[in-house]
Amino acid sequence: MTDLYQSQRTMRRMRRAAIERGVVAVLDVGTSKIACLILRFDGPEGAPAAAAATGVGPMAGQSRFRVIGAATTRSRGVRFGEIDAMPETERAIRTAVQAAQKLARARVDHVIACFAGAAPRSYGIAGEIEIADGIVSGQDVARVLAASDLPDLGEGREVLHAQPVNFALDHRSGLADPRSQVGHRLACDMHLLTVEGTAIRNLLHCIERCDLELAGLASSAYVAGLASLVEDEQELGAACIDIGGGATGIAVFYKKHMIHADSVRMGGDHVTADIAKGLHVPAANAERIKTVFGGLIATGMDDREMIDLGGESGDWEKDRRRVSRTELIGIMRPRVEEILEDVRARLDAADFASLPSQSIVLTGGASVMPGLDGLAARILGGQVRLGRPLRVLGLPQATSGPGCAAAVGLCLFAAHPQDEWWDFEVPADRYPARSLRRAMRWFRDNW
Predict the structure, then answer these.
(1) So what's the pLDDT on residue 12?
(2) Is the Cβ–Cβ distance between 189 and 165 less than 8 Å?
(3) Which of 46, 151, 312, 357 is least surrounded by Cβ atoms within 10 Å, i.e. has the fewest?
(4) Residues of the chain with pLDDT under 50
(5) Distance CA 147, CA 141 (A)
(6) How far apart, in whole angstroms, are the C-alpha atoms of residue 118 and residue 116?
C-alpha cells in the first residue's frame, strides 16, 4: 500500500509539472478505439474561468486549457478493456499519439490515461478524529483519512481512486472542505475504488514502451461521468453507463462525487460477434451492418427493409445474401438486454434506488444504437438519456460524440482533479488495516 501511495503521489506531481510546462496528452485506451487529445494550458491553477467550467473537485486546484490536437485509431491488442497483446497495443497508442502531436504541432512527454475493465470494486470507508487546536488544518484532513477503516483489498489488487466524499465537523455533515473551520471532532467518508493490479502494470509498461511518462490514471466510467452528467445529475444522484466495445462501465455520482463504480465484461463488440455468427459474415462486415442498419426496436416496416450482407468469398450465392432488418434486430436485442440486465443487477446491489434522483446517462461508442434509450428505460427504470461530452468548448467534431466522453472527461480530470488520499501528507505508519464497510452503506447511515 505504501508503494501505491507513493506512485500515485509521484503521478500527481508529474501532472502538475506537465501543466506548468503547458502541454499534456490524455489517452483513452479502449477495446475498440484509442483516442488521444493534446491539451495546452493557458492559465495558472485556480483560474476563475476554469472554476465556472465544471462543478467537479471543490477542494482541488484548477487550470484553464484548450484542445490543440486530437486523433483516434482502431484499438488492437485490448480485450474487455485490458491489454491482451502488448506489441499491438503499443503500436496503436503510438499511432494515436503521433497523429495528435502532428495536428497539434507539439511534442508531449506525459500522458494521463483511462481504461475500463480490470474488475473494479467499490468500498465506502469512514474515519473520525479529535481536533487538537479547534481549527481544522490540512494535517487534520490527512489524519482523518489515515484513521479510516481500510478493507482487505485482496491479493493483487490496487487502489485506483481514493476520494473523500463527505466531511462532518461536530454536528454538521455534508461539508465539501472542512479546512480552516472551527470544530472539535472531524469525521470523513471516503470512496475507495480498487482494480486488478496487473491491468495497471500492463498499461504503465505499455506507455513506457511508447517513450511516454504516465502522469495520471483514471477509470473510464468515472471520467465519462465527469464529461456527460449535468450539474443537477451530479448533485442529486445519477449513474453513468459507459458502453464501450469490450466492457460496460458503471459510475454512480452523488453530491458531485463518484460514490460507486462497477463494470460488466460485455460491450458493443459482443453484439458485433453475435451478428457475425448469426449471419455468417466476417467481423468487419458485421460491424458495418450494425453501424448502418442496426437497431433494437422493431417496427412493421423492418420486415420489408432488406439488407445486403455483401462479402468477398468468391461464392456468388453467399455474397449476394440478404436479410430483413427485423432479423438483424432479433440478433442484436438479446445481447443488449443481457448487458442491461447485468447493469441493473449491479445498480440494485449498490442500492442505487435510494438516491434522491435515479437519472441514468448512457455514453460510450455502443450507446448510439437506435432504440437503446427506450430499451434501457424499460429494463433499468428511471429517466434515461444519451449523454454527450459537456463543459469543454472547441472540441473537434470527431470527438464531440458519446464515444469520446471518456477522453473528454479525462481532460477535466487532468485540469480539475478531485482531492484524493495521496494529496495529503498521510504518515506511512498510519495506514489503516481494520474492518470492511461495503460501498454506499455510509451513505444510507449518514446522509
Answers:
(1) 82
(2) yes
(3) 312
(4) 2, 45-61, 428-440, 442-444, 446-447
(5) 10
(6) 7
C-alpha 146/C-alpha 2 separation (Å) is 12
pLDDT of residue 5: 62
- Cα gap 218→416, rounded to integer Å: 13
Of 226, 229, 447, nearest to 356 (Cα)? 447
H helices of 237-361, in order, are 268-279, 283-293, 316-319, 325-349
DSSP string over 385-425: EE----S--S--GGGSSGGGHHHHHHHHHHHSPPP-GGGS-
Cell of 6: 507513493
Pairing of strands 185-196, 157-169: antiparallel
pLDDT per position as a tens digit, 341-387: 999 999 999 999 888 888 999 999 999 999 999 999 999 988 899 99
| HSE toward the beta carbon, residue 300, CA cutoff 13 A | 0
Report how far residue 381's alpha carbon sits from residue 379's, in angstroms, rounded to the nearest whole number: 6
pTM tops 0.85, yes or no: yes
The structural domains of the chain, with segments of one domain joined by +, span 121-194+424-446
- DSSP-derived letter for residue 105 is T
